[in-house]
Automatic annotation (TrEMBL):
Residues 10-216 form the Cation efflux protein transmembrane domain. One of its GO terms (cellular component) is membrane. It is found in: Membrane. The keyword Amino-acid biosynthesis does not apply. It comes from Mucilaginibacter pallidiroseus. The chain crosses the membrane at residues 7-28, 74-95, 115-136, 157-181, 187-208. This is Cation diffusion facilitator family transporter.
Amino acid sequence: MASTKTSIYSALIANLLIAITKFIAGGITNSGAMLAEGVHSVVDTVNELLLLLGISRSKKPADASHPFGYGKELYFWSFIVSILIFGLGGGISIYEGINHIQHPESLERPTINYIVLGLSILFEGTSLVIATKQFNQARGETAWWEAIVKSKDPSTFLVLFEDAAAVAGLFIVLICTALNHKYDLPYLDGVASILVGLVLVLVSAILARESRSLLMGEGISAETRKNICRLVEQDAAVKKTMHILSTYQSPEEILLMLIISFKNELNTVELNDAIDRIRATVKVEYKLVRFVIIQPETEQHHQNFME
């Protein structure tokens, strides 16, 4: 989580400075695309603050009203971030783009735009490199998209996607500004703003999908379920693992429920000892499993329930 905060703080500082610069440049040069980029940077700055808030609140200890802790706060705020990217970032950029196409205005003092865009690409690119390095450390040998889908820490790929969208948007604005300047095509300013907005809408849709899955209670992988099942059934007291239910409470906490059929000859003391033994074994093998609930159940009862 410390490495995740590093990428968030770097993105926060970069976006805050870039947003101020873009608004000043957009006002001087009368560039709608630059103003749209300024809005984009403001939204990204707010997003980083919300992610830090989510990380902080997710660390709150469990209490009477939240016995399993506040880990899902991170998933909630990550989902809010994806909505902000869509509504404020993408929506405002597209609106401004349409407005500037309908009422095109000539570009003034474009050199300022080039300087700001160059510096912004440098700063955003640096932030993207940091986020990419942090994500590569987390994913290991796993393929990029697979790592994003499997990741239980949305703050890692949120910053990565934000920075990638920012860099892509800057290059779009740079190309359209250059064409506008060379061929005197003021409507390209609006086109650039719309394209930036569409990039943000696409990114927000991907982020919302992943954050929603975690917020709704995403569980452990099929491979991990098989390994836990095999681990449990190695215990001499177990006949069969009937079912495994799980959910990520946070990127570092898993709630696990095991429905197990134990051997009929066990007395109460032996059954309780077996439950304690299995719980301890699972926790030793899987460090992220914070809570293990074990429910004894006969195979016949489980079969009747399923029917």
